[in-house]
Specification:
Shape: elongated
Number of strands: 9
Mean pLDDT: 78
CATH class: Alpha Beta
Number of helices: 7
Low-confidence stretches: 19-44
Structural class: alpha+beta
Radius of gyration: 20 Å
CATH architecture: 3-Layer(aba) Sandwich
Order of helices and strands: HHEEHEHEEHEHEEHE
Largest sheet: 7 strands, mixed
Distance between the termini: 81 Å
Length: 197
C-alpha cells in the first residue's frame, strides 16, 4: 500500500466519522425538540421533565403483553389510577428506585395499579432477558408490579428519555405527574393513599 493510498484511506475514515457524529447530534437535537414542549406551566425539579409534552394530556394508547402471555391495554388498566414505571432490563439505577417504591407502598390501601413498562435496549428481540427480568421482579416484589413488555415505539410515544421514568395517569387517562425519582412521585401519590389498618 502506498503512502498516498494510506492518506486517502485515513481521510475517508475521518469524513465517515464526522458524518456519523453529525448524524448522532442531529438525532439528539430532533428528539429534544420533539420530546420537550415549550410550555413552562408545569414545574418539576428536573428541567428535562419540567416541559414534558404529555403533562395534562391524554396518555397514548398501548396494548402490551405480560410475561405470562396475557394482553393488557390502557382502557382496561385505567379502571384504576396508574403509575407507569419505564425501565430497561439493564438499567442499574432502576432497582433501588423500585425497591424504595415497593417499601413505601406495599402496606398502603391505594387505588393505584403499578405497571412496569420494560424494554430491553441491548437487544429488543432477546425474549429470554425480558422473561428473566420479569420473573425476577415478580418474585422479588410478590406481584406488586404488573410487568409488561414494551418496545422503543411505546417509549417514543410516551416521550421517555430518562430511566427510570414514573408517570401517574388518572382514570380519565390524563397524565398528571411525571418524575425520574421514586421519592418525588411518592410525594405526589401518597396523599391519595389511606394507610392500611
Amino acid at each position: 500500500m502506498t503512502l498516498t493510498s494510506i492518506v486517502v484511506f485515513l481521510f475517508l475514515i475521518c469524513i465517515a466519522g464526522t458524518f456519523y457524529l453529525a448524524k448522532i447530534l442531529f438525532f439528539q437535537l430532533k428528539n429534544s425538540q420533539n420530546h420537550l414542549s415549550k410550555d413552562d406551566s408545569h414545574s418539576n425539579d428536573n428541567p428535562q421533565l419540567s416541559k414534558y409534552a404529555l403533562l395534562g394530556k391524554k396518555a397514548p394508547y398501548f396494548k402490551l403483553q405480560s410475561c405470562q402471555g396475557k394482553q393488557y391495554d390502557l382502557d382496561h388498566l385505567s379502571k384504576n389510577n396508574l403509575l407507569l414505571i419505564f425501565v430497561d432490563t439493564t438499567c442499574p439505577y432502576c432497582y433501588p428506585h423500585l425497591e424504595s417504591l415497593y417499601l413505601n407502598t406495599k402496606n398502603l390501601k391505594i387505588n393505584i395499579k403499578f405497571v412496569l413498562m420494560v424494554i430491553n435496549a441491548k437487544d429488543a428481540q432477546d425474549e429470554k432477558a425480558y422473561r428473566q427480568y420479569s420473573d425476577y421482579i415478580y418474585q422479588l416484589y410478590r406481584g406488586h408490579f404488573l410487568v409488561l413488555q414494551a418496545d422503543e415505539h411505546v417509549f417514543h410515544r410516551f416521550k421517555v428519555r430518562l430511566l427510570p421514568t414514573y408517570m401517574y395517569i388518572n382514570t380519565a387517562q390524563i397524565v398528571e405527574h411525571v418524575s425520574d425519582t421514586s421519592e418525588d412521585i411518592l410525594s405526589k401519590i401518597l396523599p391519595l393513599a389511606d394507610q392500611a389498618t
